[in-house]
Amino acid sequence: VTTTLGRGGSDYSASILGACLKAAEIQIWTDVNGVMTADPRSDASAELITEAQVEDAELEAVAGGGGLILTPALFSTFPTAPPATLMGSNKGAAIWGTGWATLQYVRRVQLPWARLLPAAVLAGAGSFTGAWVLTLVSPDGLRKALPLILLAVFLYTLARKDLGRDHAPRFAGRAEAMVAGAIALAVGFYDGFFGPGTGSFFVFLFVRVLGYDFLHASATAKLMNLVTNGFAIALFVSKGHIWWHVAAVMAVTNVIGSLAGTRLALKHGAGFVRGVFITVVGALILKTAWDAFLR
Predict the structure, then answer these.
(1) How far is Cα 225 from Cα 123, in angstroms, rounded to an integer?
(2) pLDDT digits (tens, 9 = 90+) for 18-68
(3) With a threshold of 0.90, does the pTM exceed it?
(4) If we measure between CA atoms, which residue out of 203, 208, 202 comes closest to residue 168?
(5) Cβ neighbours around 252 below 10 Å, total
(6) Does residue 228 register a pLDDT over 70?
(7) Which are the contacts of 251, defined by CB distance < 8 A and separation ≥ 6?
(8) What is the enclosing helix (H) or strand (E) of 185?
(9) Alpha helices in 64-167, H assignment, sequence order
């Protein structure tokens, strides 16, 4: 006997009814082939979550703009889900693309591993702590401050035309390790707690404070992001805040986007990364300001 709920019947109600009737099979038909960022009937810009993930990963691989596209898409698609669950699912997918981008960068860009590895550990500790705090409190207070911080970064980068074009580290040895560690700890906490623009903050601070060019800064940011994602995922898993079925699908497209973005950055160099960085930060300002003050 075939029973049809018709348009408006939910997946959940169909599953309950099927279980009660001991149905041999439940078929769920939808208007679109997958999960989309919005209702395509009312929003012409709606796209599949997997497509958003590719674009998000490309930005992250070049200049640290990960989260600009996908994080808002997840929150709009699953408005009733706990923020920690959406952040955990996003990181569960993003770590694969970040890992691939990191591997590509370290093969082509020489990094001071002895100073950066201790900083990466501090970044992970900060991220774990931030993720733990996220499970206890809401990051709403930070939303209003973020556009102003990003605006300061944007204006400073525009004003300094030579910023990040040449690789001229300001510190060496233990001093470089200590400064890099302080940056990693602070930004790592932010990544675990809130997240949007984390890679951009890493890139900017490595350029401005450590004296790296944009290509070396982007490569270093990928290493830090890989570790912060790993530590945050460990916390989210322990709290049950990851949808693995969502993360697994997004992980594949994240790697594709990271591959494309990394190749562009390595091919065109620091000047190209600087241009993408300015564009990404500008877009982040508009998006975070809309979310904080107008939405």
Answers:
(1) 8
(2) 777 777 777 765 665 555 545 566 666 555 555 554 555 555 555 555 555
(3) no
(4) 208
(5) 14
(6) yes
(7) 92, 93, 95, 96, 97
(8) helix 173-193
(9) 70-77, 83-108, 113-134, 140-159
